[in-house]
Amino acid sequence: MRLAASDTTAFLQIAVEASRLAGKKAMDELCRVSSSLKNPSELVTQADPLCQEIIIHHIRKSFPAHGVLAEEGPGGAMLLEPPKNTCDIWWVIDPIDGTNNYAHGLLCFCVSIGVFHEGKPVAAVIYDPTTDSLFTATQNTQTCCNGQKIHAGREPISQFASFAVDSHFDAGIEPAVIQIMRMTRFRSLGSTALNMAYVAKGALVGAVTISAKLWDIAAGVLLIERAGGIVTTLDGKAVFPVDLNHYKTQRFRLLSANPKTHPELLAIFKSL
User: Fold this and answer.
1) Cα angle vertex 232, ends 12, 226, to 5°?
2) Residues 85, 10: one domain?
3) Nearby residues of 58 by Cβ (< 8 Å), 6 or more positions away
4) Phi and psi of 268, rounded to 5°?
5) Nearest residue to 234 (alpha-carbon basis) of 213, 250, 260, 211
6) Where does residue 120 rank: exposed (0-12), middle (13-18), buried (19+ CB within 10 A)?
7) Which of 29, 66, 221, 238 holds its CA 20 to 30 A away from the CA of 231?
8) At which of 149, 180, 202 does a domain end?
9) Looking at the structure, do residues 145 and 197 belong to the same domain, yes or no?
10) What backbone torsions phi and psi does residue 109 show, to the nearest 5 degrees?
């Protein structure tokens, strides 16, 4: 099945609407946040499933046959609902990326929605309701923030450049991460999706993601690529396609960067 530009435009419109609805709900729930352990390393709040339900309900009104892969499923597992026909279109949803921030009242979180066709993203939205920042892209259009085109840029690595790191990183790549942290003004936003959105905007020269799930990166990869940036695994391989029917919460170890810094940053990780 070949998608027309009108298809991805329609997907993007619904994703924008759904993300704004979910973002409003997340902001409304901030005054009464309660959290619990979803698993030994992750929190969940009462707002996460509520926001996800809003997103899926809005999608289903227009695309009832499409598949859904979302973070919040039964019993702390993910939600996996395959397409009901042969279209192979999936909506990959993170209702609140940065839940740990959200649970502690730290206003750095977002809604992330990626639409996939044949294992690759074709439309993407990241919405930060705290700043009303809406990042959008399709496979046919340049990345925008609030309707204005944005670019990953070509800022070099320097003491004035910002680079985003995960909240935690393992010993295997610690020397590389520390080297980059010493070369830049490193940041840890606590949201993989926002890290990627800001790489697309050129606010960050790069970001390393050590243990992201598919819903964390589903929108960010397309946003960066359509803004002229580069996203690869830490050994330089392509991220997509992925088989969503058989996704089992495998983690992604990715380097996102502008086209000037990516080769240099990748060489640091490859040297380990």
Assistant:
1) 30
2) yes
3) 14, 17, 18, 21
4) -65, -45
5) 211
6) middle
7) 66
8) 149
9) no
10) -155, 170
Is the Cβ–Cβ distance between 27 and 19 less than 8 Å? Answer: no
**CA proximity to 220, closest of 100, 126, 93, 118:** 126
**Whole-angstrom Cα distance, residue 63 to residue 27?**
26
Phi-psi region at 54: left, alpha or beta (left = phi > 0; alpha = psi -120 to 50): alpha
Picking from 229, 223, 195, the residue whose alpha carbon sits closest to that of residue 210 is 195
Strand, helix or coil for residue 53: helix
Residue that has been written with the tokens 């002229």 in this structure: 228
Strands (E), the chain: 35-39, 42-45, 67-70, 79-81, 89-97, 110-117, 120-128, 133-138, 141-145, 148-149, 162-164, 185-187, 206-212, 230-233, 252-257
**Residue-by-residue pLDDT tens, the chain, 272 positions:** 789 999 999 999 999 999 999 999 999 999 998 888 888 778 889 999 999 999 999 999 999 999 999 999 998 899 999 999 888 999 999 999 999 999 999 999 999 999 999 999 999 999 999 999 999 999 999 999 999 999 999 999 999 999 999 888 888 899 999 999 999 999 999 999 999 999 999 999 999 999 999 999 999 999 999 999 999 999 999 999 999 999 999 999 999 999 999 999 999 999 87
Please tell me whether residues 135 and 183 are part of one structural domain.
Answer: no
Query: Last residue of some domain: 149, 179, 201?
Result: 149
Q: Name the DSSP letter for residue 172.
A: T
19 with 138, same domain: the answer is: yes
> At residue 60, what is the residue type?
R
Residue 156 covered by a domain: no
**Distance set, CA 136 to CA 64, 85, 93, 198, 250 (Å):** 23, 27, 15, 12, 25
